[in-house]
Write a structure and sequence with these properties.
single chain, alpha/beta, 2 domains, six-stranded mixed beta sheet, disordered N terminus, binds adenosine-5'-diphosphate, binds magnesium ion
Length: about 280
């Protein structure tokens, strides 16, 4: 194995220990301000490694965008951390807590399959709140609060099939945020929406983030979107997947259409593209 291919932030000493005594390796916490700590993650599909000895620290109260080549394991990564796909090895902790002890939210890429079709939009949200243990009264109060903060202008008493794609995805995001999760995972949440709706939803998500400060991990295959939305961009390599780089997006919020032409924004986007092209040579 070529150890030089390992991400440089993983000390070689820790790495050789992991190889010799994986079960007893002490858990190394992330730097101050870390929310999610992933250590020693391993995952293969059909004998082909996707992740090997993968370590990751996700900061608290920030939006992280995950960007990388198609098939590099972006969805699998957040699905493993969110407990939807099993890891072959390793662990993820949320400020030292297990997933079981943590309230998370998840927004799926395909909004058409995300909402319960036999429940009205409002009942989809109520259902999430009741599952999270809220009383009937608390559920109604929280629903009203969500309608206000999302500035919902359509009828939530409609069924999902009666709503547009954008409206359905908005309901999915409201449902995921309803129980006030500590972390919100979003897998390409806007990829099935038209451009106008995508712009609207990005800004909605940003304003909710500014109101709540919820840690968010958003997968995107659109570099401009990844940079626009994030405080930090996590750039991944081709599989077996490593961290290519972390890029800080020190562009003030609230970001808007004007941000896309801001020289600082353009520079950061170019830097990300440069890293991507270096790490992902064309075959
Ligand atoms: N359930 C599965 N069975 C077999 N291979 C899978 C499965 N899920 C994902 N993969 C493979 O793992 C790789 C990463 O997939 P995925 O996480 O969906 O990538 P991304 O979201 O970055 O496009 C791909 O090569 C994909 O084909
Ligand atoms: Mg994916």
């Amino acid at each position: 194995m070529n150890t030089l291919a390992v991400h440089p932030s993983v000390p070689l000493a820790a790495r050789s220990r992991a190889e010799t005594e994986p079960a007893t390796r002490p858990f190394v916490p992330g730097p101050h301000g870390t929310h999610i700590t992933v250590r020693g993650l391993r995952k293969s599909f059909a004998g082909q490694p996707l992740y090997e000895h993968f370590d990751l620290d996700i900061p608290k109260g920030r939006i992280v965008s995950v960007f990388g080549p198609n098939g590099c394991g972006k969805s699998t990564l957040i699905n493993m951390v969110a407990g939807l796909v099993p890891m072959d090895g390793g662990e993820a902790l949320f400020e030292g807590k297990t997933l079981r002890e943590t309230q998370i939210g998840y927004v799926f890429q395909n909004y058409r399959e995300a909402l319960l079709p036999w429940k009205r939009a409002a009942d989809n949200i109520r259902y999430a709140l009741r599952l999270a243990g809220r009383t009937r009264g608390e559920t109604e109060a929280r629903l009203e609060e969500l309608v206000r903060s999302f500035d919902v202008r359509f009828d939530l008493n409609r069924y999902p099939y009666e709503l547009s794609g954008g409206q359905q995805q908005l309901v999915s995001i409201m449902r995921a945020l309803a129980p006030e999760p500590e972390v919100l995972f979003l897998d390409e949440p806007f990829s099935a929406l038209d451009y106008e709706m995508t712009l609207f939803m990005r800004d909605k998500l940003q304003s909710i983030f500014q109101q709540t400060g919820t840690t968010m991990v958003l997968v995107s295959h659109d570099l401009e979107e990844a940079v626009y939305i994030a405080d930090r961009v996590l750039l991944l390599t081709r599989r077996p997947t490593r961290i290519a780089a972390w890029v800080d997006v020190d562009v003030p919020r609230a970001r808007s259409a004007a941000t896309l032409a801001d020289p600082r924004f353009v520079e950061i986007k170019a830097r990300c593209l440069d890293i991507f092209q270096r790490e992902v040579p064309r075959h």
